Input
Amino acid sequence: MRWICSNKEVASPSPRRDDDRHDCGCQPSDRSTRIPGRVVSGCEPEPWWPTAVSPTMPASVLAMPKICYRCGSGIQALIGALVDVPGRGTGFVWFDDVAEAVASQVAPDVLARSGVGPIRRRRSRPRPEGYLANGCARCDAIQGSFPLSEEVAEYLAEGGRLQDLPVVATIEVALDTLEEGLMPAD
Output
């Protein structure tokens, strides 16, 4: 991995993940700061996308069929987006990372036709500051990020594939969003 530093451009000195030094002299103090796409004590990883490409990529917004916990209706809840990244394959980005893009690019009537409730800022006990979430199409109950992530994990553990879930819409996602939140879809 290459690092871009305010001092100079350097190559990571060692393939070992526990190495705390870079040629520029920066010393990360927190292991979590080594996640690609995150700032590391003045250094930043070089972007994985070519600089000549567009700053956005198309992404397919996925919905997961489920039963609303409040009213018992069969609905679809948005869980994230699939992105086909050239040279890296298909990746998945959680809904929290693309919620702003979905809310601004997908019309409410398109969501409603797909059985997805409205996207709006909602509050929950674990996240009292609020966040963009979709609700039940019938009763508007929040379909929270944590319960949805648990349902996705269960679906995948039972042999399901993200590629088999229904696509609600296609949006444009900023490349910096992908750098921070892209996970393998397989």
Q: What stands out?
A: The radius of gyration is 19 Å. Residues 41 and 47 are 17 Å apart (CA to CA). The beta strands are 2-5, 9-11, 43-45, 56-67, 74-85, 89-94, 119-122, 131-134, 167-174, 183-184. Confidence is low (pLDDT under 50) at residues 1-22, 28-42.
